[in-house]
Write a structure and sequence with these properties.
This protein is an alpha/beta fold. The protein has a single domain (2-226), classed as SGNH hydrolase (Rossmann fold), CATH 3.40.50. 50% of the residues lie in helices and 11% in strands. The chain has a five-stranded parallel beta sheet, with helices on both faces. Helix 6 packs parallel to helix 7. It is globular, with a radius of gyration of 18 Å. The protein starts with a helix and ends with a helix.
Amino acid sequence: MIVGIFLAVVVLALAAYGLFVLTSVNRFATYWAGQNQQSLDENSYTLVALGDSTAQGIGATSPQKGFVGQVAKKLSADKPVQIYNYSKSGAVAADVVGQVSGNDKISRADAIIIAVGPNDMTQNVSKANYLKNYQQILAKLPAEKVVIATIPPLERSSISDATVQEWNQDLEKLAAKNKVKVAQVYQAIKPRSRDPRIYSIDLFHPSNIGYGLWAEAFYDPLLLSFQR
């Protein structure tokens, strides 16, 4: 009897969390849209985020528990950090080109972070087109301010790890060509890629813990940007 009640509670809790993740796309987008309306504070660092649902923080318990919010919190120990997050759930690299265009906050940013790639892979965008679109993104940005994420392991998809590594190798070559910094997200996640605690209930997006690993990967390269 007790075991049955316990299992029922667990199932209900998982269902509630699953519903939270499913509905977080609109809620998180609304949150960041509101944040993007804030006036620039000359006494704060300005951090601009571009990319897909990972930059939105989908899977975390709140938008600020995604890697963008977590790394901003770590960096704010020295000076307040304002976040302007123009990412969008489901975005591929071609969409991020649009996130860059006409963005007046970019010229005022102290650092610009980009996380995009898994959707290109799962939507069968060719690696050549992905890199071509990424080059268009980087061509529009001040290289010294940019930090890009490598693609994390996609253990729970049909994409092989060898393919992810191949894309990352070419992405790092593109980063070197454009002289932008790289956050080694793949290396941060890979040792724990089979640990269910680093994923949300959809087993694809990171959890708060998983995003903490992303934030650690971004911290050092972002610190260099802020200390220019």
